[in-house]
Design brief:
single chain, 219 residues, Alpha-D-Glucose-1,6-Bisphosphate, Chain A, domain 4, 6-stranded antiparallel β-sheet, two-stranded antiparallel ribbon, DUF4468, DUF4468 domain-containing protein
């Protein structure tokens, strides 16, 4: 298990280093959670029109409304569904990666509100032939106190209260530079992976917004 945890830290660099968090730099955050939400006005559409369109979109977007729709409130015209995006940009040792999420669509006369949140990061790690499954709250998994961890690593190797001679100071500066360089590379790597997920989410939102404007004849 120790080897697996070490491997996890190496292939998920956002858990170790960052001067600013890739998590908060890429995703919209509300109370520490990833939340995509907006109220969209649709002229000429009744609450029933929008409610029907939302159900049709869920069937088309996720292929099976039976599996996707978790709650269908016909009286209040609210639909709650669950889906996932395939994980992208991972090391070859990470397999079956999925980002599960909940989508809620509230319909009113001439408008609707979508809320996409509750992301769960589900994946397997294969190290030396051993597969270990992880199912984590993405908002906690991805958003770690990066600066604090970076300082801990530096202070552990070179305690801040210890006096250093010229040679030790030189080694300290070299080690710090190595950490800084590693930080920059790992930050860019993590930004890239998170940006791909953000792009997938926004593409889904665009699909929803187009579908909600449709009339029955257009489907």
């Amino acid at each position: 298990m120790k080897k697996i945890l070490i491997f996890i830290l190496s292939v998920f660099p956002s858990l170790i280093f960052s001067q600013s968090s890739p998590f908060t730099d890429v995703f919209p955050i509300v109370n520490g959670k990833v939340v995509y939400s907006e109220v969209i006005q649709v002229e000429g559409k009744s609450v029933l029109d929008l409610y029907k369109n939302a159900k049709i979109w869920l069937v088309e977007a996720f292929k099976s409304s039976k599996d996707v729709i978790q709650n269908d409130d016909k009286d209040n015209h609210i639909i709650i569904g669950k889906g996932y995006f395939e994980g992208v940009g991972h090391n070859k040792n990470i397999v079956n990666a999925k980002y599960w999420f909940t989508i809620r669509i509230d319909c009113r006369e001439g408008r609707y509100k979508y809320t996409i949140t509750d992301f769960i990061y589900d994946f397997d790690v294969i190290v030396m032939g051993t597969k270990t499954h992880f199912n984590e709250d993405f908002s906690k998994w991805g958003n770690v106190a990066f600066d604090t961890k970076y300082k801990e690593l530096l202070d552990k190797k070179y305690p801040p209260n210890n006096e250093r001679n010229a040679k030790q100071q030189e080694k300290y500066e070299k080690y710090k530079e190595e950490l800084d360089n590693e930080l920059e590379g790992k930050y860019k790597e993590t930004i890239g992976r998170y940006s791909l997920l953000d792009k997938q989410i926004k593409s889904m939102i665009e699909s929803l917004n187009i579908a909600m404007k449709q009339s029955e004849d257009n489907w």
